[in-house]
User: Fold this.
Amino acid sequence: MNQGLEIVSIADLPAQSGMGSSSSFTVGLLGALHALRGEAANAGQLAREACEIELDRLGEPIGKQDQYIAAYGGLQAIRFLPDGTVSVDPVICDIRTKRELNNRLMLFHVGGERRAGDLLGKVKERGEANRGAIRQLCGLARRMRDVLTDGRDLNAFGHLLNESWHAKKSLEPAITNSRIDDLYSRAISAGALGGKLLGAGSGGFLLFYCEPHLQDRLRHELAELPQIPFTFDPHGSKVIYVGEDHF
Assistant:
């Protein structure tokens, strides 16, 4: 850019809370700057450029999942290939399955924001020891995708979510703590079939899968936590206004 800019960022949720806010910001900013230059950047380009900024230039020890889902949106099966490339395939499922999944997912803010890079650096140090758990997480992701595409027993998604949380906790002790473990145990006792702490861990947001007829009981059990309503976004990052070019 060869002129001065004023950049304003507005967010509904706090930063450093496991919701992919930094990558969403980077992808959105890149899209806006490309539009200001009169350039059309597709989702793949925005995701790759955001990864270059966060991973290569800033040296953050994070993955690429946040940048790609922020750029593409929707329900995606994302594969990270050995050569560094990323494959993004939409999860094809019935609209009623998507709607019901959205209705059965509940998001609660537990607080305790942290820098994801600090925790992920510890996970990376345990790379070889974590190989089995990482393979397990990959397999669970494929099984979750199959549950959605089959569209039959959606509760299987909740049980798989529970398995994935226990696998994720094994990567590094600091991913969870006694408070989070207590909240999770109480949620399961109240009727949730599964859940997980979003992001790197140690704080932020807990996501639970709970059937509709048990959701009031879960809300009551976790009454000290704010519930955050949400819906799936099918579009990903987009430019919503382009004004006249006066430069």
Notes: The mean pLDDT is 91. Residues 21-90 form one domain. The chain has two domains: 21-90, 95-221.
